[in-house]
From TrEMBL:
This is DUF4378 domain-containing protein. InterPro entries: DUF4378, TRM32-like. Residues 2-66 form the DUF4378 domain. The lineage of its organism: Eukaryota, Viridiplantae, Streptophyta, Embryophyta, Tracheophyta. It comes from Dendrobium catenatum.
Length: 82
């Protein structure tokens, strides 16, 4: 287990040392290099799902509140006589 951690740390150090400023490198090269590393820092799939579910709940709550309000207004403005 310890060897694996050291190898991962060493790989990260080497990767960052390769990223030292070079005169002929442009921003697109840097960005593409970061995306090809694929270390999971941009994996926001689960975060997007959480936001979608939260937004869905907020919209549903707002719709239900609106339906209840509209029904109460209709019922109180036109009372049912027995």
């Amino acid at each position: 287990m310890g060897d694996h951690i050291l190898e991962e740390i060493w790989a990260n150090i080497c990767w960052h040392l390769k990223g030292q400023p070079q005169p002929d490198i442009n921003l697109e090269d840097i960005v593409s290099r970061n995306f090809t590393k694929n270390d999971g820092w941009m994996n926001i799939h689960y975060d997007i799902e959480d936001v979608e579910l939260d937004l869905e709940c907020l919209i549903l709550d707002a719709l239900l509140d609106d339906v209840v309000l509209q029904l109460s207004l209709v019922l109180y403005s036109n009372p049912i006589s027995c």
